[in-house]
Model the fold of this input.
Amino acid sequence: MSADAATPIPLLARSLRLTAVPSAASVSRMFVSHTLKLWQLEDHAETATLVMSELVTNAVKASGITDTDPKSWQIKAEHVIGIQLRAIEASLYVEVWDRTDAAPVRRNPSLEAEGGRGLLLVEQLAKRWDVYRPHVGGKVVWAELPLGLPVELRPFDHVPLILPSGIRASRGPVEGQARTALLDWLSRTTIEAMIAARVIPET
Done:
């Protein structure tokens, strides 16, 4: 099949940069629910919000402030995470960037432990998950969730998501790093999908 005769692959994507504090987890759930409603994929919101929340919690622990009530003077320009949702073909991708290189570690907590089950939950809910290290640094932890049917592009209103004050990351070098890293991952994986579908030729 020639590239001219091929049908382009529908792609939906949306990203956001947040301050790396514990409340980013609840905001990330808002982002997922809001976005999937716009995309008419709200049937997948429960699983996607759980996975996003776990990945964001890990990212905050790795690179942010874990104090549940951080003071404004504690928050620095480097306290940034990036989150992204992407739907392509029959998969929904939940993606989180943070500025550290260390991969998250899956633990085997005891039955009495109150935490440590984040990646175990992600493994149970996701088709697969992994870590991508973009050229700008840091890492993107991603999880693939099955949609059942290929994505269809439908018209929808671009309704803005109203965020709590102070949670959106301020523009700066690390915020730009997060933006570039997620775009890098989106571009790389989209091109791979297009090559696999023979929409564009392999070089």
About this structure: The chain has four helices and five strands. The beta strands are 11-19, 80-88, 91-98, 128-132, 139-146. The longest strand covers residues 11-19.
